[in-house]
Write a structure and sequence with these properties.
Keywords: ATP-binding, DNA damage, DNA recombination, DNA repair, DNA-binding, Helicase, Hydrolase, Isomerase, Metal-binding, Nucleotide-binding, Zinc
GO molecular function: 3'-5' DNA helicase activity; ATP binding; DNA binding; four-way junction helicase activity; hydrolase activity; metal ion binding
Bound molecules: adenosine-5'-diphosphate
CATH topology of the largest domain: Rossmann fold
Shape: globular
Number of helices: 38
Strand order of the largest sheet: 3-4-2-5-6-1-7
EC number: 5.6.2.4
Pfam family, one: HRDC
Catalytic activity: Couples ATP hydrolysis with the unwinding of duplex DNA by translocating in the 3'-5' direction
Number of strands: 19
Distance between the termini: 64 Å
Strand content: 5-15%
CATH architecture of the largest domain: 3-Layer(aba) Sandwich
Helix content: 40-55%
Length: about 800
């Protein structure tokens, strides 16, 4: 029999099996033990405390460091039908009260807070009276001074726990494995005989690539132009470098944004959201970016500079491929990176002990870059994990690139350094090797050296890269002082004496991080539309891996959809049909044969049977009044509360309890919990006072047809247009936005080549807006509606964009 844990995993998350370690961690927590779980970034920590939260009675509080990301986490929970809430400084007092009421009424299972909240006495008053079953501390390394993200506010956590009347189960999660951090967490959180889980740090789907030669900039541009559609993060060491890279990418027409501590909070928030919501593909950032970022479809992480330690590096690359899909991590190394990091340590840390600790870590990182063994093995070894084979998924194992013998050129460089008496830096060396008439060269009489001008065939940049590569491979030493000076070492002498050959790999950027297929692009577009409508990031709807599985298995009914990893019951109800329809159209148009097993054929048969519903107008009007009242209270429009069609279905099917209400199309757990009671009591009241006869029938897989209306909503809207009805009236009656209706018209024209009705589009935009929209269309392509919206001033609405596109590109002859 399936365990309770697994059943919940399937039901809510739609995943079919646990990842490594998850099941053990969950059952330990469920059995009442404190836990410290160390799992790599992307390993799936959230599920480890969320599933126990669902099993326990009472509330789970999650302490998480980044308030900007809590909303996405809570949105994701709600979207799965889990009662999640958040309290932090981003919400209003009214919203906070609402959350507190939900908590008091037992309508919240998981509450996210930032550690600072633990200092608020009003919060403590409310919370200390609640039944708290678990406190989960996410990113628990923030409590340790030795962690790379130390936060003073984390030190308040254990005091808070002590204040509680009953001690809940305490669970701590981090990706940082070092012994000292681990000990700090147990001690500072006062964990009670915790079970410590180290699930294994390997992230098999990440390809680790370290590049020590060539020009970083051209590598980056080549790589990105080969992976235009993919989401990626580019980390650089300084704000200035981030600004430069981002500007260059944008100038070249790539869709990039940036993040660093020098930007205003608003800009950081906006840029981060643009990236998370797939509005831009590339995020250029310092290491300030990324903690808690849940975006699962990051296909590559490029380090433009070497990071300061292995933990930070592994955490940053861990942000790639959280969805388990193959992803690439590329470190572009140059010897100056070491200098930059040393400078940053000097600038930022005063405490001598911490400073030395950071230097040791920097050395470990530098050794990693120079290492010739399997990179994965090296990293796992740092985390105390034994990895006794080669991974065949890193650039050392795969020996990528073409080996080129560079011994003679290396000898030219080395002998020039020798003749210049080891006293100069790269710029002067380049000048001499290229035969520059620079004043200083003449002043030192370097124009008389035999090596003067012997590398004229190299450009300055090429030569700089070559010298850097020699330093990277330790054929030259970089001696630091006021200015870094190039010097020779044992290895250089061997080359000069022809005892050792110098061979480098020349890298070609050829591969794409991922191959997209046409259906994947279609499904991604649908996901984006839904994400814009619902105001949640695309990955909250479905992850890339889920969409990809759909493009391989072509699920066409509920059972097949639920078999796709990432499709749970609630999500199926919400989005299943839209995706099924798109897949069906694709399969039909491309004559793809989809295997139909007997079970599926049966399903198809059942699906073809209708459940006919006749609306009860009187009851419908009553329900509509209730819906308007709720809308007024929530300051929104009625259709956002419950759709008209759901109300019609309720009025004709008469659900008399919450379970039956679940069977009404469009009634998800959130709507049921907010409005269910009120609706059910009105239905019951109506039945009683009118002696209405009621025979409840379950929908099963039948299609609901209300009042004989079997047309889909887009067909209804288009028919109304054909009848000459006004667009705003159609929008009101169908409860579909004008922009969506204009989208239907566009699709219709794409399919049939023309429309047989008049469209008055001019009312949706003015002249100035039209010019701006047309300019954006010319630049970005008129099919990129979301990108166009993003580029334009925010007052220009979607409906204006769609109207201009229709007029200019689809109805030109009309
Ligand atoms: P982290 O350990 O970094 O906090 P998350 O909890 O954010 O990782 O999980 C990373 C991704 O992996 C998320 O998209 C999550 O939905 C997915 N995931 C977690 N557990 C599973 C599972 N058992 N099967 C498939 N995907 C999973």
């Amino acid at each position: 029999m399936k365990s309770k844990e697994l059943a919940l995993l399937e039901k809510y998350y739609g995943y079919k099996s646990f990842r490594k370690g998850q099941e053990d961690i969950i059952s330990t927590i469920v059995n009442g033990s404190d836990v410290l779980a160390i799992m790599p970034t992307g390993g799936g920590k959230s599920i480890c405390y969320q599933i126990p939260a669902l099993i326990f009675e009472g509330l789970t509080i999650v302490i998480s460091p980044l308030i900007s990301l809590m909303k996405d986490q809570v949105d994701a929970l709600k979207d799965m039908g889990i009662q999640g809430e958040l309290i932090n400084s981003s919400i209003s007092a009214i919203e906070e009260n609402k959350v507190i009421n939900n908590i008091k009424e037992g309508k919240c299972k998981i509450l996210y807070i930032a550690p600072e909240r633990l200092e608020s006495s009003s919060f403590l008053n409310v919370i200390s009276n609640c039944n708290i079953s678990q406190i989960a501390i996410d990113e628990a390394h923030c409590i340790s001074q030795w962690g790379h993200d130390f936060r003073t506010s984390y030190t308040k956590v254990s005091g808070f726990i002590r204040l509680l009347k009953k001690r809940p189960i305490i669970t701590a999660f981090t990706a940082t494995a070092s012994e000292e951090v681990r000990e700090d967490i147990v001690r500072l959180l006062n964990l009670n005989n915790p079970k410590i889980f180290i699930t294994g740090f390997d992230r098999e789907n990440l390809f680790i690539n370290v590049i020590k030669s060539g020009d970083k900039k051209s590598y980056l541009h080549n790589y990105i132009s080969n992976n235009k559609e993919a989401s990626g993060v580019i980390y650089a060491a300084t704000r200035k470098e981030v600004n430069n890279i981002c500007e260059e990418l944008c100038t070249k027409g790539y869709s990039a944004t940036k993040y660093h501590a020098g930007l205003s909070e608003n800009d950081r928030k906006k840029n981060q959201e643009d990236f998370i919501y797939d509005r831009v593909n590339l995020m250029v950032a310092t290491n300030a970016f990324g903690m808690g970022i849940d975006k699962p479809n990051i296909r590559f992480v490029i380090h433009y500079n070497m990071p300061k330690n292995i933990e930070g590096y592994y955490q940053e690359i861990g942000r790639a491929g959280r969805d388990g899909e193959k992803s690439e991590c590329i470190l572009l190394f140059s010897p100056q990176d070491v200098q930059i990091q040393k400078y940053l340590i000097e600038q930022s840390i005063e405490n001598i002990e911490r400073k030395n600790n950071q230097y040791n870590k920097l050395n470990q990182m530098t050794d990693f870059v120079y290492s010739n063994e399997c990179y994965r093995k090296y990293i796992l070894d740092c985390f105390g994990e034994i990895y006794d084979h080669n991974c065949d998924n890193c650039s050392n194992c795969l020996n990528e690139g073409e080996l080129v013998d560079k011994t003679i050129d290396a000898q030219k460089v080395l002998s020039c350094i020798y003749r210049m008496k080891h006293k100069f830096g790269t710029t002067m060396l380049i000048d001499v090797l290229r035969g520059s008439k620079n004043k200083k060269v003449i002043q030192f009489s370097f124009d008389e050296l035999s090596t003067y001008g012997i590398m004229k065939d190299y450009s300055s940049l090429e030569l700089k890269n070559f010298i850097n590569t020699l330093v990277s491979h330790r054929y030259i030493s970089l001696v630091t002082g006021t200015y870094p000076v190039l010097g020779l070492n044992e290895k250089s002498m061997k080359v000069l004496k022809s005892e050792e050959k110098v061979t480098f790999k020349e890298f070609k950027v050829e591969k794409k991080a991922r191959e997209d297929n046409e259906l994947f692009t279609i499904l991604k577009e649908i996901r984006k539309e839904i994400s814009i409508e619902n105001g949640v990031p695309p990955y909250v709807i479905f992850g890339d891996a889920t969409l990809k599985e759909m493009t391989i298995k072509y699920p066409l009914n509920k059972e097949q959809m639920l078999n796709i990893s990432g499709v749970g019951e609630v999500k199926y109800k919400k989005y299943g049909e839209v995706f099924e329809n798109a897949i069906r159209t694709f399969v039909d148009e491309n004559n793809i044969e989809v295997s139909t097993h007997t079970k599926e054929t049966e399903d198809a048969k059942i699906e073809s049977i209708h459940l006919d519903v006749t609306t009860n107008k009187e009851l419908f009007n009553k329900l509509n009044d209730i819906r308007c009242e709720f809308a007024k209270k929530e300051h929104t429009i009625p259709k956002m509360i419950i759709s008209q069609n759901s109300l019609k279905e309720i009025s004709g099917r008469y659900p008399t309890n919450l379970d039956q209400l679940k069977d009404i199309t469009g009634m998800g757990p959130k709507k049921i919990s907010s409005y269910g009671e009120k609706i059910i009591s009105s239905v019951n009241e109506y039945i009683l006072s009118n002696s209405q006869e009621v025979n409840w029938t379950e929908k099963k897989k039948k299609k609901v047809i209300i009042d004989g209306e079997s047309r889909e909503i887009h067909e209804i809207a288009l028919d109304m247009l054909k009848e000459g009805k006004e667009m705003t009236l159609i929008s009101d009656e169908t409860e579909v936005s004008i922009s969506t209706i204009l989208g239907y018209v566009t699709d219709y024209i794409k399919e049939f080549g023309e429309v047989q009705f008049n469209l008055n589009l001019d009312e949706f935009y003015n002249e100035e807006e039209e010019t701006l929209i047309v300019n954006s269309c010319e630049k970005l392509g008129y099919d990129k509606v979301s990108a166009i919206k993003k580029e334009l001033p925010s007052y220009i609405k979607y409906e204006a964009i769609r109207a201009v596109i229709l007029k200019k590109y689809f109805l030109r002859d009309n």
